[in-house]
Write a structure and sequence with these properties.
Order of helices and strands: EEHHHEEE
Distance between the termini: 95 Å
Oligomer: single chain
Number of domains: 1
Shape: rod-shaped
Helix content: 40-55%
Radius of gyration: 38 Å
Largest sheet: 3 strands, antiparallel
């Protein structure tokens, strides 16, 4: 908005435009508001990214534990498949996780079950984490003496 004013020192009608607009203090208030909004957005972004980082770290650890458990079950199954049937029964009663794996996979339990049905005998091994119920058990099933059955 333009406003015309007369100068008192000069008798002539000389006018000069005067601009009426936002004052510098009002602009400082807007700048503080912008900084506040930017700070809130930054804090929110840092909170979200840190949460995602913790979750990804947990998922990577669980995935590594799952792979180690699967390798341990494969090793146990291979050993049990090569044993004679009478030695296998004794080995199933004394089934334990190896010491190296038990240090990595803390608080896990291994179990074995021999299944006999019309398709043959199978051995089902399972590792369970009782203190972490969110982790699913790891299972591995192997044939002891497979029989071919045609339908």
């Amino acid at each position: 908005m333009l406003c015309f004013s007369q100068s008192k020192s000069n008798r002539t009608m000389r006018t000069r435009p005067r601009v009426i607009g936002p004052s510098p203090t009002r602009r400082d208030g807007l700048m503080q508001l912008e900084l506040l909004v930017a700070a809130i957005l930054l804090i929110t972004l840092v909170g979200i990214l840190s949460t995602i980082g913790f979750r990804l770290t947990r998922i990577a650890k669980d995935s590594k534990n799952y792979q180690i458990a699967l390798h341990e079950l494969a090793n146990q199954l291979e050993v049990l498949q090569r044993l004679a049937p009478e030695d296998r029964a004794a080995a199933l009663r004394e089934l334990q996780i190896s010491s190296e794996v038990s240090r990595t996979l803390s608080d896990c339990q291994i179990s074995a079950e021999e299944i006999a049905d019309r398709f043959g005998r199978r051995l089902r091994l399972q590792i369970v984490w009782p203190k972490t119920p969110t982790l699913p058990p790891v299972e591995l099933v192997g044939w002891l003496d497979a029989q071919e059955v045609s339908r």
